[in-house]
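Friendly challenge for the regulars: who can give me the structure tokens for this chain first? No prize, just bragging rights.
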Amino acid sequence: MESEELNQQLLDLIKGLEQEGLVDDKFRLCHSLKEVSSPFFFAELIPTFLTDVRTVVRDMTITLDQSIMDYYVMYEYCIKLRGSATCIGACRMKIACSNLRQAIDNKSKDGCLLALNDIKNEYCSLQSKWDTIVQLEKTIVSYESKRP
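First reply, four minutes later:
Bragging rights claimed.
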């Protein structure tokens, strides 16, 4: 498969994610930054984001499991995750974080649990699709590095 075909396939995947409402234009902007900074930028950015989400979600789960929940700590995690989701263009994750923020403001442990569950669901939706994008991106970079 030619490099141009692979790039088109990647752009079509991104467009599909936009149409599903999983990502916004910032995701496409992050993809375009690879040409400025490094060909591996995008392929490294996605796994880093996903790892950070897993870590924050784990820490949120631990905080929610405490008998007396620290809403300030949950707020800190929420802000961190929402900021990361906003920067990479994970708009549905950003909305889920806004719902968590509302639950935190209301000091509702049940609301926090529901919102965290939504965040986990959004993570699962993104992970499988983004893993495909990362593999395709690595194939493109590898193919282009072999060209004369």
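The chain has one domain: 1-145. The two ends are 16 Å apart (CA to CA). Your move, everyone else.
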